[in-house]
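F.,

This is the one I mentioned.
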């Protein structure tokens, strides 16, 4: 994809899609999601049909790649706009290791670290 095309898509996204995502983030932050089901995206399909590629395209986060079955677990991505312009990206991975109680959290500073 040419750089001009990417810039055009980004501009359209920022103008038409981003305001709705920000609205849902604001509603979720106010606790409304306890009473009202807010929009979400669910990706379901057979093995090797592009589910991870779809999530990568939406989120900009590169998921693990390899041969065979790679993303063999439920995956939830929560995306929200950063409140800190000097730090536009931050994340954490939360998971429950098999056979262990509790949750493990790994903080990440860049989508490339996923």
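My design for it:
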């Amino acid at each position: 994809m040419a750089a001009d095309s990417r810039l055009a898509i980004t501009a359209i996204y920022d103008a038409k899609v981003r305001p709705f995502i920000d609205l849902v983030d604001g509603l979720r932050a106010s606790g409304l999601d306890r009473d009202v089901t807010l929009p979400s995206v669910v990706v379901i399909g057979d093995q090797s049909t592009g589910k991870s590629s779809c999530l990568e395209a939406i989120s900009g986060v590169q998921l693990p790649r390899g041969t065979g079955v790679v993303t063999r677990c439920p995956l939830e991505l929560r995306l929200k706009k950063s409140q800190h312009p000097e730090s536009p990206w931050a994340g954490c991975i939360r998971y429950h290791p098999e056979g262990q109680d509790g949750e493990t959290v790994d903080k990440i500073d860049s989508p490339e670290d996923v």
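The CA atoms of residues 27 and 33 lie 7 Å apart.

Talk soon.
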